[in-house]
Amino acid sequence: MDPFQNVANNLLQKVLTYTERSYAPYSGRMEAVIILLEDGSFIPGVRVENASFQLSISALLNAFTTAFSLGRKDISAVISSVPFSESELAYTSALSGYSWELVGSQLLLVAGAHLPVPTEAVEIIKHVDHFDPQRGVELARTASHHALIPQSNFPVGCAIAFPSGEVITGANVEHSDWSQILCAERNALSTAISYGLGETKAIYVSCPKLPGGTPCGACRQVIVELAPHATVWMDLGSDAPASMMATELLPGHFSGDVLKRTQKS
Questions:
Q1: Do residue 233 and residue 207 come from a single domain?
Q2: Are residues 152 and 105 in the same domain?
């Protein structure tokens, strides 16, 4: 077997292991994508569904928004556990600065890029000493610097804390197809699922251009489903951050439990 095919097979085996992390209680479609970076490290993304079906996040969108919010654009290849859909190919083809070659139905290569042997997933977890709400919003502010915002020029950052003391961050990532834009909160939450992290303890949101800005309606729906017990903290600029419980953000929310496969069967 030639070296290229060895790497491709290695990638396929890796991406299949990530499908088990998918959050797909409504369809059962366990899907994953891996973005292979030029240094051999990679970024996973898994399918994340929502009771409001149109808010579901594809594995490909999950992986790309994670990569961009980390400032990683040094992409060599993208591999999917299932054939790429037409909408996913349209998403990648519209990304500025990339030219793609589709190999088969599950592998996208960046034209001219070297295909390195995959190593380990990019480390995203931060360990923060003396963590408090102010430190949380500071991390969210810093995360907003990685926002990809050609449409709005409105950066948003998010930090998510877990009971173990670990923290991850995310930023809003825009696209020419507005239906493919992902807010910082949904970005960070879907990244947490891809990396197999546990229950969310707290969510910190920072809108540097609008101190006091709160999650949009779409993010509130996703937050209340994926992190119903979390405290959500909003950056108020020079004032102390304000907080609300996730369920308070969306009173009378639709849980979607009746739609889950275990209930339907």
A1: yes
A2: no
From CA 49, how far away is CA 72, in angstroms rounded?
Answer: 25
Q: Which of 88, 185, 199, 248 is catalytic?
A: 185
Q: By the 8 A CB rule, do 204 and 230 touch?
A: no
Residues of the domain holding 47: 3-110
Tokens 């995310």 belong to residue: 170
Whether residue 263 lies inside any domain: the answer is no
Do 104 and 181 reside in the same domain of the chain?
Answer: no
Cβ distance 62 to 78 under 8 Å?
no
For residue 143, the 8-state DSSP code is H
Residue 138 lies in a domain: yes
Assign residue 28 a region: left if phi > 0, alpha if psi is -120 to 50, beta otherwise?
left
Name the pairing type of β-strands 126-127 and 100-103: unpaired
- Which residues, 6+ apart, have CB-to-CB distance to 264 below 8 Å? none
d(CA 81, CA 107): 9
Q: What is the pLDDT along the chain (265 residues), one digit of tens a residue?
A: 577 888 889 899 999 999 999 999 999 999 999 999 999 999 999 999 999 999 999 999 999 999 999 999 999 999 999 999 999 999 999 999 999 999 999 999 999 888 899 999 999 999 887 789 999 999 999 999 999 999 999 999 999 999 988 999 999 999 999 999 999 999 999 999 999 998 999 999 999 999 999 999 999 999 999 999 999 999 999 999 999 999 999 998 888 888 888 665 4
Q: Say how far apart CA 36 and CA 117 lie, in whole Å.
A: 9
Question: Which CATH number characterizes residue 11's domain?
Answer: 3.40.140.10
- What torsion do the CA atoms of 10, 15, 20, 24 make, to the nearest 10 degrees? -160
Is 185 a catalytic site residue?
yes
